[in-house]
Amino acid sequence: MSVNMIHQLNQHKSIRKYTDQPIDRELLTSILEAGVRASNTGNMQMYSVIVTEDAKQKEALSPAHFNQPMVKNAPVVLTFCADFRRVHQWCKINDADASFDDLLWLMNATIDSMLVAQNVSVAAESEGLGLCYLGTTLYNAPQIIDTLELPKGVIPITTITLGWPDANPPLTDRLPMNAVVHFEKYEDNSDEDIRHLYFEKEAREDSNKFITENHKENLAQVYTDIRYKRADNAHFTKVLKETLIAQGFKL
Ligand SMILES: Cc1cc2nc3c(=O)[nH]c(=O)nc-3n(C[C@H](O)[C@H](O)[C@H](O)COP(=O)(O)O)c2cc1C
Description:
Layout: H1 3-10, H2 25-35, E1 47-52, H3 55-61, H4 70-73, E2 76-83, H5 85-93, H6 103-126, E3 130-134, H7 136-139, H8 141-148, E4 154-163, H9 177-180, H10 191-197, H11 199-203, H12 205-213, H13 219-227, H14 230-246
Helix pairs in contact: 2-6
Protein backbone atom coordinates (compact mmCIF):
# COMPACT_ATOMS: atom_id res chain seq x y z
CA MET A 1 0.00 0.00 0.00
CA SER A 2 1.41 3.35 -0.96
CA VAL A 3 1.76 6.16 1.54
CA ASN A 4 -0.92 8.08 -0.40
CA MET A 5 -3.43 5.30 0.11
CA ILE A 6 -2.73 5.26 3.85
CA HIS A 7 -3.12 9.02 3.86
CA GLN A 8 -6.46 8.74 2.04
CA LEU A 9 -7.76 6.11 4.48
CA ASN A 10 -6.72 8.25 7.43
CA GLN A 11 -8.74 11.16 6.01
CA HIS A 12 -11.99 9.16 5.78
CA LYS A 13 -15.10 10.92 7.03
CA SER A 14 -18.74 10.12 6.32
CA ILE A 15 -20.29 12.76 4.07
CA ARG A 16 -24.02 13.33 4.58
CA LYS A 17 -24.62 16.29 2.27
CA TYR A 18 -24.00 16.41 -1.48
CA THR A 19 -24.06 19.03 -4.24
CA ASP A 20 -26.53 18.79 -7.14
CA GLN A 21 -23.75 17.62 -9.46
CA PRO A 22 -24.49 14.15 -10.86
CA ILE A 23 -21.92 11.35 -10.98
CA ASP A 24 -20.87 10.52 -14.56
CA ARG A 25 -21.90 7.04 -15.59
CA GLU A 26 -18.30 6.37 -16.70
CA LEU A 27 -16.92 7.31 -13.27
CA LEU A 28 -19.60 5.29 -11.48
CA THR A 29 -18.81 2.28 -13.67
CA SER A 30 -15.10 2.48 -12.91
CA ILE A 31 -15.81 2.74 -9.17
CA LEU A 32 -18.12 -0.28 -9.31
CA GLU A 33 -15.53 -2.22 -11.32
CA ALA A 34 -12.90 -1.45 -8.67
CA GLY A 35 -15.47 -2.56 -6.09
CA VAL A 36 -15.99 -6.01 -7.54
CA ARG A 37 -12.23 -6.63 -7.64
CA ALA A 38 -12.55 -7.20 -3.88
CA SER A 39 -11.65 -10.61 -2.53
CA ASN A 40 -14.71 -12.80 -2.18
CA THR A 41 -15.53 -16.26 -0.90
CA GLY A 42 -14.58 -18.94 -3.44
CA ASN A 43 -14.74 -16.28 -6.16
CA MET A 44 -18.48 -16.93 -6.42
CA GLN A 45 -19.33 -13.24 -5.91
CA MET A 46 -22.38 -13.99 -3.81
CA TYR A 47 -23.68 -10.42 -3.90
CA SER A 48 -25.61 -8.02 -6.07
CA VAL A 49 -25.42 -4.25 -6.09
CA ILE A 50 -28.53 -2.23 -6.89
CA VAL A 51 -27.85 1.26 -8.25
CA THR A 52 -30.59 3.82 -7.56
CA GLU A 53 -30.38 7.08 -9.52
CA ASP A 54 -34.05 7.68 -10.23
CA ALA A 55 -35.56 10.36 -7.96
CA LYS A 56 -38.84 8.44 -7.61
CA GLN A 57 -37.02 5.29 -6.50
CA LYS A 58 -34.97 7.30 -3.99
CA GLU A 59 -38.19 8.75 -2.64
CA ALA A 60 -39.63 5.25 -2.34
CA LEU A 61 -36.50 4.07 -0.50
CA SER A 62 -36.36 7.05 1.83
CA PRO A 63 -38.86 5.88 4.52
CA ALA A 64 -37.04 2.54 4.77
CA HIS A 65 -33.98 4.57 5.77
CA PHE A 66 -36.03 6.45 8.38
CA ASN A 67 -36.05 9.42 5.98
CA GLN A 68 -32.37 10.14 6.49
CA PRO A 69 -31.95 13.09 4.10
CA MET A 70 -28.91 11.61 2.32
CA VAL A 71 -31.10 9.15 0.40
CA LYS A 72 -32.97 11.82 -1.55
CA ASN A 73 -30.04 14.27 -1.57
CA ALA A 74 -27.43 11.88 -3.03
CA PRO A 75 -27.18 11.47 -6.81
CA VAL A 76 -26.53 7.75 -6.35
CA VAL A 77 -27.71 5.26 -3.75
CA LEU A 78 -26.10 1.83 -3.77
CA THR A 79 -27.70 -1.14 -2.02
CA PHE A 80 -25.37 -4.09 -1.50
CA CYS A 81 -27.16 -7.42 -1.19
CA ALA A 82 -26.13 -10.91 -0.18
CA ASP A 83 -27.27 -13.06 -3.10
CA PHE A 84 -27.34 -16.85 -3.31
CA ARG A 85 -30.05 -16.79 -6.00
CA ARG A 86 -27.75 -16.34 -9.00
CA VAL A 87 -25.28 -19.03 -7.89
CA HIS A 88 -28.09 -21.49 -7.08
CA GLN A 89 -29.58 -20.92 -10.52
CA TRP A 90 -26.20 -21.50 -12.15
CA CYS A 91 -25.76 -24.71 -10.15
CA LYS A 92 -29.29 -25.87 -11.00
CA ILE A 93 -28.85 -25.57 -14.75
CA ASN A 94 -25.59 -27.49 -14.36
CA ASP A 95 -27.12 -30.31 -12.33
CA ALA A 96 -25.04 -29.24 -9.29
CA ASP A 97 -26.56 -29.62 -5.81
CA ALA A 98 -26.07 -26.18 -4.25
CA SER A 99 -26.57 -25.48 -0.53
CA PHE A 100 -25.55 -21.85 -0.18
CA ASP A 101 -28.75 -20.88 1.62
CA ASP A 102 -27.62 -21.59 5.20
CA LEU A 103 -26.18 -19.46 8.01
CA LEU A 104 -22.58 -20.13 7.01
CA TRP A 105 -23.21 -18.83 3.51
CA LEU A 106 -25.34 -15.95 4.70
CA MET A 107 -22.27 -14.85 6.64
CA ASN A 108 -19.95 -15.51 3.70
CA ALA A 109 -22.22 -13.56 1.34
CA THR A 110 -22.52 -10.75 3.92
CA ILE A 111 -18.73 -10.53 4.17
CA ASP A 112 -18.49 -10.45 0.36
CA SER A 113 -21.13 -7.71 0.14
CA MET A 114 -19.33 -5.57 2.73
CA LEU A 115 -15.96 -6.02 1.04
CA VAL A 116 -17.41 -4.79 -2.26
CA ALA A 117 -19.09 -1.91 -0.45
CA GLN A 118 -15.84 -0.88 1.23
CA ASN A 119 -13.84 -1.20 -2.02
CA VAL A 120 -16.45 1.01 -3.70
CA SER A 121 -16.15 3.48 -0.82
CA VAL A 122 -12.38 3.69 -0.99
CA ALA A 123 -12.43 3.97 -4.81
CA ALA A 124 -15.11 6.69 -4.62
CA GLU A 125 -13.16 8.68 -2.02
CA SER A 126 -10.02 8.44 -4.16
CA GLU A 127 -12.00 10.29 -6.88
CA GLY A 128 -13.09 13.01 -4.44
CA LEU A 129 -16.60 11.68 -3.90
CA GLY A 130 -18.19 11.51 -0.46
CA LEU A 131 -20.31 8.73 0.98
CA CYS A 132 -22.24 7.54 3.96
CA TYR A 133 -23.19 3.99 4.90
CA LEU A 134 -26.78 3.39 6.00
CA GLY A 135 -27.33 0.73 8.64
CA THR A 136 -31.08 1.20 8.25
CA THR A 137 -30.87 -1.32 5.39
CA LEU A 138 -30.88 -4.20 7.87
CA TYR A 139 -33.51 -2.55 10.08
CA ASN A 140 -36.05 -2.15 7.32
CA ALA A 141 -35.06 -4.92 4.92
CA PRO A 142 -38.69 -5.85 4.08
CA GLN A 143 -39.47 -2.38 2.70
CA ILE A 144 -36.20 -2.34 0.74
CA ILE A 145 -36.96 -5.79 -0.68
CA ASP A 146 -40.35 -4.48 -1.86
CA THR A 147 -39.03 -1.27 -3.40
CA LEU A 148 -36.06 -2.87 -5.16
CA GLU A 149 -38.07 -6.00 -6.04
CA LEU A 150 -35.44 -8.31 -4.56
CA PRO A 151 -36.41 -11.93 -5.28
CA LYS A 152 -35.96 -14.91 -2.95
CA GLY A 153 -32.29 -15.64 -2.27
CA VAL A 154 -31.41 -11.95 -2.11
CA ILE A 155 -31.23 -9.88 1.10
CA PRO A 156 -30.09 -6.25 1.40
CA ILE A 157 -27.08 -5.88 3.70
CA THR A 158 -25.93 -2.30 3.52
CA THR A 159 -26.42 0.92 1.59
CA ILE A 160 -24.07 3.70 0.58
CA THR A 161 -25.21 7.15 -0.46
CA LEU A 162 -22.72 8.64 -2.90
CA GLY A 163 -22.18 12.15 -4.21
CA TRP A 164 -19.94 15.17 -4.51
CA PRO A 165 -19.35 16.53 -0.99
CA ASP A 166 -21.19 19.64 0.12
CA ALA A 167 -19.85 19.43 3.67
CA ASN A 168 -16.50 18.97 5.31
CA PRO A 169 -17.09 17.70 8.83
CA PRO A 170 -14.18 17.13 11.22
CA LEU A 171 -12.63 13.67 11.46
CA THR A 172 -14.44 11.54 14.01
CA ASP A 173 -12.60 10.00 16.94
CA ARG A 174 -11.36 6.42 17.24
CA LEU A 175 -10.48 4.36 20.28
CA PRO A 176 -6.74 4.03 20.96
CA MET A 177 -5.09 1.29 18.92
CA ASN A 178 -4.52 -0.92 21.95
CA ALA A 179 -8.29 -1.08 22.46
CA VAL A 180 -8.78 -2.84 19.14
CA VAL A 181 -5.50 -4.53 18.21
CA HIS A 182 -4.10 -7.53 20.08
CA PHE A 183 -0.77 -9.13 19.29
CA GLU A 184 -0.59 -12.93 19.30
CA LYS A 185 -3.39 -13.47 21.83
CA TYR A 186 -6.51 -11.64 22.97
CA GLU A 187 -5.57 -9.55 25.95
CA ASP A 188 -8.64 -9.12 28.10
CA ASN A 189 -9.22 -5.77 29.83
CA SER A 190 -9.77 -5.05 33.48
CA ASP A 191 -12.52 -2.53 34.32
CA GLU A 192 -9.76 -0.03 34.93
CA ASP A 193 -8.28 -0.70 31.48
CA ILE A 194 -11.72 -0.12 29.96
CA ARG A 195 -12.09 3.20 31.78
CA HIS A 196 -8.70 4.22 30.48
CA LEU A 197 -9.43 3.11 26.88
CA TYR A 198 -12.75 5.01 26.77
CA PHE A 199 -11.47 8.04 28.69
CA GLU A 200 -10.81 10.27 25.67
CA LYS A 201 -14.07 9.37 23.97
CA GLU A 202 -16.02 10.11 27.14
CA ALA A 203 -14.18 13.39 27.69
CA ARG A 204 -15.05 14.78 24.25
CA GLU A 205 -17.23 17.86 24.07
CA ASP A 206 -19.70 16.19 21.66
CA SER A 207 -20.00 13.18 24.00
CA ASN A 208 -20.86 15.45 26.90
CA LYS A 209 -23.39 17.28 24.75
CA PHE A 210 -25.12 13.95 23.95
CA ILE A 211 -25.17 13.06 27.66
CA THR A 212 -26.65 16.40 28.76
CA GLU A 213 -29.18 16.61 25.92
CA ASN A 214 -30.44 13.13 26.64
CA HIS A 215 -30.41 13.50 30.43
CA LYS A 216 -28.16 10.47 30.86
CA GLU A 217 -25.39 9.80 33.36
CA ASN A 218 -22.76 8.79 30.84
CA LEU A 219 -22.00 8.02 27.18
CA ALA A 220 -22.56 4.27 27.47
CA GLN A 221 -26.16 4.99 28.54
CA VAL A 222 -26.64 7.19 25.49
CA TYR A 223 -25.77 4.14 23.36
CA THR A 224 -27.93 1.66 25.31
CA ASP A 225 -30.93 3.82 26.25
CA ILE A 226 -31.18 6.27 23.36
CA ARG A 227 -29.37 5.19 20.21
CA TYR A 228 -29.66 1.40 20.24
CA LYS A 229 -32.35 0.42 22.73
CA ARG A 230 -32.84 -3.18 23.87
CA ALA A 231 -36.49 -3.24 22.78
CA ASP A 232 -35.62 -1.88 19.31
CA ASN A 233 -32.81 -4.42 18.96
CA ALA A 234 -35.22 -7.23 19.83
CA HIS A 235 -37.88 -5.96 17.43
CA PHE A 236 -35.56 -5.46 14.47
CA THR A 237 -33.84 -8.80 15.08
CA LYS A 238 -37.22 -10.54 14.96
CA VAL A 239 -38.16 -8.77 11.73
CA LEU A 240 -34.77 -9.54 10.19
CA LYS A 241 -34.96 -13.24 11.08
CA GLU A 242 -38.46 -13.50 9.59
CA THR A 243 -37.30 -11.64 6.49
CA LEU A 244 -34.29 -13.91 6.01
CA ILE A 245 -36.53 -16.96 6.25
CA ALA A 246 -39.09 -15.43 3.85
CA GLN A 247 -36.22 -14.78 1.41
CA GLY A 248 -35.30 -18.47 1.48
CA PHE A 249 -32.45 -18.60 3.98
CA LYS A 250 -32.42 -21.75 6.14
CA LEU A 251 -31.51 -20.54 9.61
C1 LIG B 1 -22.63 -0.47 8.58
C2 LIG B 1 -22.71 1.02 8.85
C3 LIG B 1 -23.95 1.61 9.02
C4 LIG B 1 -24.05 2.99 9.19
N1 LIG B 1 -25.29 3.57 9.26
C5 LIG B 1 -25.40 4.91 9.31
C6 LIG B 1 -26.68 5.53 9.24
O1 LIG B 1 -27.72 4.87 9.13
N2 LIG B 1 -26.73 6.89 9.28
C7 LIG B 1 -25.62 7.65 9.37
O2 LIG B 1 -25.73 8.88 9.37
N3 LIG B 1 -24.37 7.09 9.42
C8 LIG B 1 -24.25 5.75 9.38
N4 LIG B 1 -23.00 5.16 9.40
C9 LIG B 1 -21.81 6.00 9.47
C10 LIG B 1 -21.21 5.95 10.88
O3 LIG B 1 -22.02 6.68 11.74
C11 LIG B 1 -19.79 6.52 10.79
O4 LIG B 1 -19.00 5.73 9.93
C12 LIG B 1 -19.13 6.59 12.17
O5 LIG B 1 -19.83 7.46 13.01
C13 LIG B 1 -17.69 7.07 12.06
O6 LIG B 1 -17.66 8.32 11.39
P1 LIG B 1 -16.80 8.53 10.07
O7 LIG B 1 -17.29 7.55 9.03
O8 LIG B 1 -17.08 9.95 9.64
O9 LIG B 1 -15.38 8.31 10.42
C14 LIG B 1 -22.89 3.78 9.25
C15 LIG B 1 -21.63 3.16 9.11
C16 LIG B 1 -21.55 1.80 8.90
C17 LIG B 1 -20.20 1.18 8.68
